[in-house]
Amino acid sequence: MSRLFSFALLTLFSLAGIGSACAQSQRYGDVTLVFIPGIYGSTLSDEGGKVFWGDNGIGSNGLSLDKYPNLVPALFKNVRFSVGMLGTTVRGYAGIERNARHLAKDVLTFAYDWRKSNKSSSAQLNQFLCSHIPANGRRNRIVFVAHSMGGLVLRHWIKDFLGEELGSSSCIKRDDVETFIFAATPHIGSLEPVRTLFEGETNLDINPIVSSLFTGRMATDGITFESAYELLPAHNIAGPDCAGFDPAMAMKLSKDIGTGSDIPVYLNEIESWRLLEIPSDLPEELDRDSALSMIEQRVGNASAVVCELLSYTIPPAVARKMNFVVGELRDQRTRQNFQKTTLERVVIEAISDRDRTLRVSTGKGDGTVPYWSSEPSAFGVGETSDYPQATNQPHESVLDDVGVVAHLQRVIERAAKSVAWLNRNPLDSEIVDRASFDRAVQALADLPLGTLAPEVLTEGASLLTAKANDLGISGLDIYRQSRSYADANDPARAAVGYFIAAQIGTDLNATSALWANQNAAYFLKQVGNPELAAAAAIQAGKLNQFYFEQIGSQDRAVPIGTITKIESGWRSIITSETIETFDPGVSAVIKESPRFDPGVFNEPQVKAYERFRSPLN
User: Fold this and answer.
1) Which residues pair with 329 in a beta bridge?
2) What is the Cα–Cα distance from 613 to 610, expressed in whole angstroms?
3) Among 455, 426, 450, CA closest to 440
4) The pTM is what?
5) Model confidence over 208-258: pLDDT tens digits?
6) Which end of the chain is more exposed for a tag (fewer CB within 10 A), N or C?
């Protein structure tokens, strides 16, 4: 085996930084950027400082996880390697760290032992975050940037510590996070290690200097790495008993060439490794039975870990915070056609009981991770805040892309604007008359309402509501102004205006109060924030129900025709396709309840949304 997983060394040269594209950018003090490197992205030393992975590649003792389970990681920055009389410097993650500090005042880099399981690394990530970011009284936003395998660590952290809709077992809460950026992450594995399993060589072997530095010893010890097995094609290593298994996505074995009778290869079963006689190359100190015994244990653990991610549904509110950087290598001459240099499909052809070969095809990707593994639908994420950011850079250099740097700057700037609202500075002191009030409404509407955390809009609206009361601005006045925004095709200002008008209440009759909530819900849906649209629609429904119960009394505040229209409106928003994608549970409750049914508001799924408006109630 010995070359089993050394394909991942390709990511060593991924350690290239982004250069100095943002050296003159503004630095935002209320944003924390957390960077998670990929495999091989942290140097490893013992407690005495002896280097096992870093300067000059692998130390003399090797990197066996079994022999050395407790090495100390540090960020792989710029490391110098010496070969004979020559020396060379490989750029590490120093570039992205340096440039990140030009954008965010606080930059945290999570160095970890990349040999270990991504799941266990995610628990260490949680401890790291809780020790570096205070949980109480914080008024800032967190931006995560994860490269390559670091994205799998981040996804495990989301699942195990952040993902619940109504809470979190981490000191970091969902609304603390502005964005998760996954750069060249093999969400459902890579095919490069499969080729290495059968052929015993990697792309690195082409370069004799690189091969002499890394490949031999790294490949020998690679058989002990827990993380390496988690980089195999996900559906193959998870196996058919996994709830997230999809046979269409699994690598195939062809028993009868030409008949189309391809069947999935179940790498979660050690018998498959035995029958296929993989890995083809083993370290000298291990015979095949000993090697397979260790592989069986590693495969069993990796199968469970990978299945967890395949079976887990990312909460839509978290998914919309996700951004993706995907490789689309293009022809260097035309810049049009995709380079077909990334393994896209592998079929094992069993020619006879003892003779098998690989039938491979190449396609779109970054040279290491195929496009279908790095883009969001690879693991069931549908609607996200941004379409995948494509880059023409190879896997090892995706963070070099100027477009990616610009995107990161936009994300951090957006986060800083949100923080400004939460800190109520300087708006609180600057709103002194109607003109400055209108400017503040415009500033709030200028925020990215589609991805805004609920607390930002509700607290911003709460501030403006209080200011309106102080200045004697009536709810009816703001309601009428909001109608002019709607007529001018300005849904963002209409959403904010109606949202505020519904809270002020002064001079609004019952019908206007109902429509203020209903229109706020409608325009929040228009700007792409289903969470707040659902919350506002439910508020409209609760008011609607209150006035419906007055029918028959002498003081009917709202005509029955208006009540019926509002009833249809708020229900249609929650049961729309957008909201259903966001949370089918809430939509199901609304659909199944009869019209004017007050019991619907006591359902747990519906009550959960009251928290989004709690600052205003």
Assistant:
1) none
2) 6
3) 426
4) 0.74
5) 444 444 445 566 677 889 998 999 999 999 999 998 888 888 877 765 444
6) C
